[in-house]
């Protein structure tokens, strides 16, 4: 019922029901997490973070349930270093290169990116297995662009698709300052890609 009120945008009613769930109930962790979500939505992320951290101390199961909401709340609150620390801590509790391990590696890289530690994010992504790194090629290319390493960005993008609507390889090449725009990009690309690529052109190319 509490979640239903939450979905209906009735936070006061949701809070009354969720707060009444006792600590011994199976639904208690989910209720605490939902209450933290209400705090975040109300503009009180610090309270949500404290509630989720307190919940995490009650049991290993509760810690596992609270970990992803806590990570997301830390990011939303602008606490990227703390979010990264949480992700790396959770990663140590999983089997190396398991699905959970790689998921927390991705979360840690996400937090590093939000902290503008692009080199750290790139390093984390390269710690994953070969297939996962290949799947992350687009992210790596963009991170290398942000890190001011255009040659590495182009290398990461070498095997990415270059078809409508995104024309990823062309996009990366233009942002890296190499090559000229593919005419298809300007006729069929997504608006954000078109704007970015127009901005990357020289004035003469843009006028043409």
Globally, the shape reads: elongated
Q: Helix/strand-derived class? A: mainly alpha
**C-alpha Rg, in Å?**
22 Å
Query: In terms of quaternary structure, what is this?
Result: single chain
Count of strand segments: 0
Number of helices: 15
Give a quick account of the main beta sheet: strands, pairing sense, barrel closure.
none
Show unreliable segments: none
End-to-end Cα distance, whole Å, is: 60 Å
What pattern of helices and strands is seen along the backbone?
HHHHHHHHHHHHHHH
Overall average pLDDT? 84
* Helix share bin: over 70%
| Strand content range | under 5%
Concise overview:
This protein is mostly helical. Helix 2 (11-19) runs antiparallel to helix 3 (28-41) and helix 10 (137-146) runs antiparallel to helix 11 (150-157). The chain is built from 15 helices and no strands.
């Amino acid at each position: 019922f509490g979640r239903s009120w939450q979905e209906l945008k009735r936070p006061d009613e949701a809070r009354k029901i969720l707060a009444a769930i006792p600590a011994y109930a199976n639904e208690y962790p989910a209720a605490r997490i939902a209450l933290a979500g209400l705090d975040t939505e109300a503009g009180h992320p610090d309270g949500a973070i404290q509630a989720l951290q307190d919940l995490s101390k009650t049991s290993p199961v509760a810690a596992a349930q609270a970990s992803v909401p806590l990570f997301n709340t830390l990011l939303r609150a602008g606490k990227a270093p703390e979010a990264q620390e949480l992700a790396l801590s959770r990663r140590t509790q999983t089997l190396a290169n398991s699905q959970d391990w790689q998921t927390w590696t991705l979360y840690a890289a996400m937090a590093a990116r939000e902290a503008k530690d692009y080199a750290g994010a790139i390093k984390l992504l390269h710690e994953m297995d070969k297939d996962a790194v290949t799947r992350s090629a687009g992210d790596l290319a963009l991170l290398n662009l942000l890190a001011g390493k255009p040659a590495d960005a182009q290398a990461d993008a070498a095997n990415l698709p270059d078809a409508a609507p995104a024309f990823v390889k062309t996009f990366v090449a233009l942002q890296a300052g190499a090559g000229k725009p593919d005419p298809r990009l300007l006729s069929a690309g997504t608006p954000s890609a078109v704007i970015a690529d127009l901005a990357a052109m020289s004035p003469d190319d843009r006028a043409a």
